[in-house]
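User: Modeling request: complex.
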Amino acid sequence: MSVLSGIARRVGRRLLSSIPALLGVVVVTFVLMRVLPGDPAVFFASGPSAGKEEIEQIRHQMGLDRPIPIQLARYLADVATGNLGHSLTTGQPVTQDMERRLPASLELTFTALVIALLLSVPLGVAAALRPGSPVDHAVRMLCTLGVCVPTFVSGLLLIYVFYYLLGWAPDPTARLDIFASTPPDITGFYLVDFAMTGDWSGWWAAFTQLLLPAISMALFVLAPLARMTRASMLAVLGSDFIRTAQSVGLSRRRVVITYALRNALLPVLTITGIVFSTMLGANVLVEKVFSWPGVASYALDALLASDYAPVQAFVLLMATIFVLVNVLIDVLYGIADPRVSIE
Amino acid sequence: MTDLLRVEDLRVSFSTRHGMVAALHGIGFALKAGETLGIVGESGSGKSVTSLAVMRLLDRAGRIASGRIVFQGRDITRAKHGDLRSLRGAAMSMIFQNPRSALNPIRTVEQQIVDVLRAHKPITLSAARAQALELLRAVLIRNPEQRLHAYPAELSGGMCQRVMIAMAMACEPALLIADEPTTGLDVTTQKAVMDLLAGITAQRGMAMILITHDLGLAARYCGEIAVMERGLMVEQGPTATLFQAPKHPYTQRLIAASPTRRSTLADLAQGEPVAPASVIQRPPGTGPLLDLRHVLKVFTGDVRAVDDVSFSLPPGGSLGLVGESGSGKSTLSRLICRLIDLDGGDIIFQGESISAIPANDFHRSPRRRDVQIVFQDPHDSLNPRFTAFDCIAHPLRRLEKMRDGAALTTRVHEAASRAGLPMDLLERYPHQLSGGQKARVGIARAIAPRPRLLVLDEPTAALDVSIQAVILQLLDRLRKEDDLAMLFVSHDLNVVRMLCDDLVVLQHGKVVEAGPSAAVFENPQSGYTRSLLDAIPHFDPHATAPLLQVAEG
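Assistant: Request completed. Predicted assembly structure:
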């Protein structure tokens, strides 16, 4: 019980202390958007021939003719009440757009992260168990390749091989085949929604659609995760308590998995949080290549159109997710490592 | 009776960047069931390598080049890992130095003991748990039911070592190897842990190899002693004979350098000039150099780390601060150095209160150069990017604003020569110096600004006995030549007795006993001081007799 309340207290403290940072993010993005060249009023006027008067009118409607501090104050008041404004490109409230697109991005990123972890942890362990061996060098080369090849290149390569040449993968556009029926909107995660309604053929279709973009994302983050696992595993394998475990005759499996790996995963956990947050926002290329209707490509389109509201909302969303993921990692760390919760 | 363990002409070498380096040059010994063997020697003598080789736990770089290890009639020199696994823990097990890091930090005590039991016996989880509890009882841990669910970080060092002992004896092995099992523990804890080890091994008829640098400990708990020097076993024999009539010159040197109940500084280092060059005569009736009045330091959680401590130290005097870890002796020394602020009381230095100056500003005070410190670890307290010259010059540059030039060089050379540091070593970096040389750099740095008071925080704890003896003599000579007062913080009562005129014994932040060293040692007034004195292992061969009888009987 006291453990739970301790965790709750720590979570509360972390969330409270992140509010100033989030506020800073909102203000900086807001100001940055205003000082960047580009005028949304011109972009959204009826056409290239629109008169000065019409543009002025749009500016007035959008409140762009007021001083920036007043615009900022109004924006902050809106954000506080949960109103993130309207997207001028889609004509929808930004919150609604985000609600629709965020699950797509999250589903893709989660899957990619799971694939990356399933690959990188065993690879890192294998490399650490025999440092300097051919296995170690092979893992190092694979990681280097993963980092060196940009995601859009690896994405296109995957499409070329598995869709065009082999024909194993479905048409690499969007989350589901255009003629297939989408699942009922329960969570927004297709895999979860299909599973909940018991539509397994739909689930398989969504899963195969998800696989290629997820793999190309996973390849990119393989390196930090595998290298971290290897380094951390090497350090733990050299520590005193591993020698103790060997001196009392524990089986190799137990020494490597229960004693070494569980300790070695602690720093990997921290890196995983950072990797996840980065993947979510930075993999706009994958979303573009696979026409994935995610938040990152949405934000990019908005940015190109000088559409302020979605960009600001996107940055705020990413910052919030970053905070939440870090808090989650902290809690997990506290559970995994008793030394943290003792303090 | 056949030998339980027989090591024949064992040679071990390590591959390093400079090629293969031999660590053991062919050593041999034998041990029968139930016997106790002490392997003693200074750092680098190869005693730990010997124990790791017997357990076949040498790391990747280490290799058994030749020789034979025969355990229970089986040659295990080239045994496969699968075969070793069934031996380790079940037939032979090991206890390591630094018990805290020897236990898995994220598994509970119960889980770790159960792991050992279930690795060797086909028993159920609940049976293993019950046995784990029994084992904790056997190693005399208080509240064993609660401790079962504790993580190593929640236990004290002594407690962790007891858990380690419980794990090592869980499957009743025939041989227990203890590698410096009590180094880093307090004397009273050391005694408790060693008594426990001796009792358990005697009771269950287990043989024990005790690896230690402490001759007293080996003498007290072992029937046989083997002395190692630079990868060779130079002498071997029954404890009493070996200590009474050591044959090898190295053994003789080692015994001479080890402080005992009656030894003096002159006894420790043979052949070294002891007499100070000139002894400064002080006019009588001068006031104290340092005067502490009701000093108080409270840490968060209302812990009184230093509670109403008063004592004084005359110019050129020497005072030992003695106590176990947590007694407040280090906090007190930091208060006197003005590295932390007082919460009450007063510190008077040369008739002037220095307790009002905030610790953060004390470096600007002219008193800063008058109080200098020699730290415990000679390696970690030197900047690895500074040469020995720069280390010694650092306080002169900072406190006396000296610029590079002839004057600075002269002062550095003077300090180095007074600390006995050869001039050709001044251009070296700390990693290129030996432990004793680094200790000399630390002392030279402290005396360079010509302080009035030297605070020494366990200055010889990390050094081998033969080097410790030389350093202690150096300190004694400096004190007499310079009229330099010394405050000596130590857990080693023998060292304090030889070096200090007066003694202050601390417990839980309070002074439990104070007075002239000789008097306190001869006739301790408090029970705590007596228990500290009793816990010191010494190698008076006759004193070991009763314990050995228990072990053999």
